[in-house]
Write a structure and sequence with these properties.
By secondary structure, the chain is an alpha+beta fold. The protein folds into 3 domains: about 110 residues; about 70 residues; about 70 residues, Glutaredoxin (3-Layer(aba) Sandwich), CATH 3.40.30. About 65% of the residues lie in helices and about 10% in strands.
Length: about 270
């Protein structure tokens, strides 16, 4: 998102957060209704353009949203109206913002239930389980496969053992990828969880387990670098000969032996 959209999103999120806190575990229903709003925007370019058009007054757009959402929770209608009254750099940013709020609503419900840690761990484990399943990852992103079928595939992967919020998020990521790869959406959800905790998550790829001292030291270094607490999730890769590959959001620090050798080859060839 560009500057205007980012500012609008931040303002709406700030007003929306107390609503989620008050809703408690019922925030999940608000999230699902926001996803329905996102789907309506994605499936109708004319609707999306109208609701994001800064030349159209806010009240008529808010009235259209009230008609569109019908019997939805008043909190859902109110936040959707807040979104369409805001200014957006591009009409697609409106749908992206609504999706982000929907994800936050489900995560807030898990937070209220005391299960956010479990949701975070289950999403991380699902990401790891898919790392060696190329065909499954492709099926979860394939437009030729109906969204309902992709969601059912996720149900089989989770085998009924996941938290209800984990299942809802994982199904949503499969049924409505919105141009993202499935694992990329899971990574986006991990970042949103980190935001809710005002911390970052670092995925650290190593050949062997880090010691407790190494984990503490690394966490301290990353916390100082990012200015907030950083949680470390370890991934073991036998192809890593030594060193670490650290990813925090879009930022990657690759200090493995193979990466250093590749850098040396590039320097020699230049």
């Amino acid at each position: 998102m560009r500057g205007t959209s980012r500012a609008s999103l931040a303002a709406v999120e700030e007003r929306f957060e107390p609503v989620l806190t008050g809703a408690g575990t019922q925030a999940a229903a608000i999230g699902e209704q926001l996803f329905a709003f996102v789907d309506a925007l994605d499936h109708s370019g004319s609707l999306r353009r109208t609701l994001a058009d800064p030349s159209v007054p806010g009240d008529p757009k808010a009235g259209l949203v009230a008609q569109l959402l019908g019997q939805a929770d008043p909190a859902t209608v109110a936040v959707a109206q807040d979104l369409v009254r805001s200014r957006w750099s591009a009409d697609g940013d409106l749908a992206d913002a609504a999706e982000r709020l929907g994800f936050h609503a489900l995560l807030a419900s898990a937070e209220a239930a005391g299960s956010l840690d479990r949701v975070e761990e289950e999403l991380f484990q699902l990401t790891r389980a898919l790392s060696g399943q190329r065909e499954v990852r492709q099926a979860l992103f394939d437009d030729a496969v109906p969204g309902a079928a992709r969601a059912q595939l996720v149900d089989r992967l989770l085998a009924g053992r996941a938290d209800t919020v984990t299942a809802a998020l994982a199904r949503r990521a499969a049924s409505a990828p919105r141009g993202r790869r499935y694992v990329a959406t899971l990574g986006h959800l991990a970042d949103l969880i980190a935001e809710r905790r005002q911390r970052s998550v670092a995925t650290v790829t190593t050949a062997t387990d880090l010691t407790a001292a190494q984990r503490t030291r690394l966490a301290d270094i990353l916390t100082r670098a990012y200015g907030r607490q950083v949680q470390i999730n370890e991934v073991h890769d036998p192809h890593v000969l030594g060193g670490l590959r650290i990813q925090v959001g879009p930022n990657v620090v690759d200090a493995t032996v193979l990466a250093r050798l590749a850098d040396a080859r590039r320097q020699l060839a230049s």
